[in-house]
Structures are given as C-alpha cells and as structure tokens.
Amino acid sequence: MTFSRLLFLSLLLMMQPMAEAVTLPSWLKLPRLSKKEPLKLPQTKVLVGDFTGGTGESAKKALVDELTSSREFLLTAESPEFTLSGSSIGGRVTGKLTRADGKVVLERTYAAPGLDENLRGFSDDVIYAITGRPGLATSRLVFVSDRTGTKQIYMCDTRGREIQQITHHTYGAVSPSLSPDGTAVAYTAYRSGFPTVLVLDLGLGWERTVTDTPGTSFGAAFSPEGQRLALVMSFLGNPEIFVTDLNTNTAGCISDTVGAPSSPSWHPDGKQVIFSDDRGRGPRLFIAEVPEKGKNEARLYVWHTGYRFCTDPEFSPDGSSVAFTTQIGDETAVVVKEYPRGTVRVIQAEGAQHPSWSPNGRYLCYSQHGTLYVHDLRTSHRRAVLTQYGTISEPRWMR
C-alpha cells in the first residue's frame, strides 16, 4: 500500500462521525477471516446394544468404557453403522459385531479367567475389524522406575492399571524392549557391575544372557519378527551396534564408529536399524542397512533431522515417521519427523523424552519429569498414565 493511500485512509477516518461505521474503499477491503474451528475427525458410529446373561450388564459397561477410552468410535444410537451385542455368563463373553446392512462382521467367544480381560480382547477385535488398525486394550507398556530405591522394570496396561514389577536386580535394570508378541522383554542389567543384556520370558519366568562375549552390552531392541536383537556391544573395543540372532546366538556388526552409539530401533521391514551416535559434536541419528544372510557389508549413513541433539529414535509402525528426543533450549523435547524426508513436528517440549509408538501409530507414550504420558497425535490430547510412581523413564510400547 502506497503512502498516499494511507494518508487518504487517515483523512477519511477523521472525517467520519465516531458512532458511524466507515465504508472502506474496495481496494482496501480484506477477506473475511473465519474463526478457527477445532479439528473434527470423522468417526464411525457404533451402537453398543444388549448383552444378556448374568454378567451381561457388567460386560456392556466394561465394553463401553474400553471403546470410549480408545477414542476410535462415536458411541451413539443415532444411525449407527455397526451394532455390538452379545452375552456374558460368569465372565465368559460371546460378542457379535453386525454391520448396518445386517452382515455379521465378527462373532467370537472369549473365555479368559476374568471379565475385564475378555472385554479388552473383544474391544481390540472390534477396533481391528472396523478400522484395520490394532486396538490397544490388550497392549502393554514397559518402563523403568526407581520407586524401590534402584531402577527396575515394570509393566502396565495403557491406562496405568495392572502394574507388575518384572525385574528385581540388586544393581538395577534399564532399557526395556518388549517382544512383538508380548511374551518376552529384553533389558540391560548390572548384576555383575557391568551392563549386560538379558531376555526374560514373561510366561515361564526364565531369563538368559544374550551373549557370552567379554565387554559390555546394553540397549537391546527386538526386531519386528522377534527373532533378532539390535544392541550395543563392546567386545571389539569400541562400542558398536550389533544384530544378534536369538536362535543361533550369532552376531554381526552393522556400524563403524569412533563415537558412542546407543538406542537402536528397527524399521518395520526389518532391513534397517536407526540409532543415536555421539561422535563429539552432539548425538545424531544414523541409519544402518542390515545385510541379508550371506552378505557381510552394511551400509551406514547419517539421517539429517535439523537438530544437533538427537537420541532415543523409534520408527512408527508403518515406517513413515521417526519419533526421537531432542533438545530445545535447556530442556529435552519429543519430536516426530517424516521418514526418509519431510516435515518435523514438536510433540511435547519442557522435559519430555523417550518416545515410543503405539501399535496403531496414533499415539506416543513418553516420560516427562518422572510421569508417564500417552499422547494422541491426531487430537494433541494427552493424559497422564502413571504419576507419583517413582521417577519413570524409558517407556516402551508393545509392538
């Protein structure tokens, strides 16, 4: 806008009575700005109908609770696209999902010992049948807490219930990683004074040392199929990232660094491992391509994030993004960047760290000032899962 037009506008405003509206020239009119509406996500309409049997009412209430918590559907009786019904006797549940056109999409009986367990299983199956994405009711989180005086590994559901302490090592245990089927956890323990990677079978209760090589090992992560671990080992001298086969107990090095590598995580295709490496200029993220059997060469390159401080990377379940911890100002923050290239989004600053993806890719869990949070990436809503349970760190989601 020229100075002469600005002067004309000023004179025009001065000549108008104070109580009258000013009609602006056409060349000065601005487009009308609408108020920013909150993000409204389309939701499938689901009716939770009748549940018969002695524990039918309790089953219906528990199912409504689980589906409401999932935030996947709009539970309503108005023009539902799907209807849920079933029966429950003595905690045993038979559930049915019917489409609006009358087609039965899902019908199954759940006979676990507890009613709540059966309803969580039904809830997850309903979510998967409608959306094609895994439900989270039966999913589990593992995390580290120092509530007993030493750091130990615990497990809970995604709402902070059913908490179990699963390690009891004198010198502590850290860096947990759940197997994809949730039957085992790999972690780092200090039972001999030096870090060692162990695998604990959660069903049978036995544990094994992953390697019998000299030196230290730490920071293990299960591969997508659950038969391999990526971990840091130092038996060659300098710490390097190795991939070990749990069936054959063989290992191969996939990094070549003079720095301090840590926090390996697998791409869902099982062909790449991302990790953090501090080579003296602050930790950055590197990608190693895991060689196929019979091939020895592993390609390694830097993945540029736009940040100088990057740790704790983890691929999203579909491999399209990476969540990691960075530093903004004097505090850590959780960031998500599209992979292999694309936009960057700060999810939570002010001390948030250790992000891990939910199996459906919609949520992140992370710790912030000792509290465990779950964060909805679509709505930016977050909730505290566990507070005042010692200082919580390193949460990991069952994949």
TrEMBL record:
Leader peptide range in chain numbering: 1-21
Domain of life per record: Bacteria
Keywords, sorted A to Z: Signal
Keyword Signal part of the UniProt annotation: yes
Family, similarity comment: Belongs to the TolB family.
Name of the protein in its database record: TolB protein
Native source organism of the sequence: Prosthecobacter debontii
